[in-house]
Amino acid sequence: MNISLLASILAMSQPQPGQPAPPIWIQLAPMVLIFVVFYFLLIRPQQKKAKEHDALLKTLKAGDKVLAAGILGTVTSVREKSVVIRSEETKFEVLKSAVTEVIERSESGEKSEKS
Known about the structure:
about 45% helix; rod-shaped; disordered C terminus
């Protein structure tokens, strides 16, 4: 890029002596636009995902097959803040927040949802 072209572009961006400064809303518009873009690209999807995860944790019940902290297992009991998972011959007690996915719902839950 030519240095004289860069200097002329920079000179155009600043108000000349005797010219009024642009209104404050024009100066704030880029920051507001950046905030709106961040909200729709980062904040809103994260909030939506957190709500879905909370709904998933509230519907956990015994018999569901889940993925929790890299462990595949079946929920044997649900407590206030933790879940007991049985995988093969081992029982684990993990926090509810560690459950990332319900792979298969128990059949008893499907019958109650249909009625």
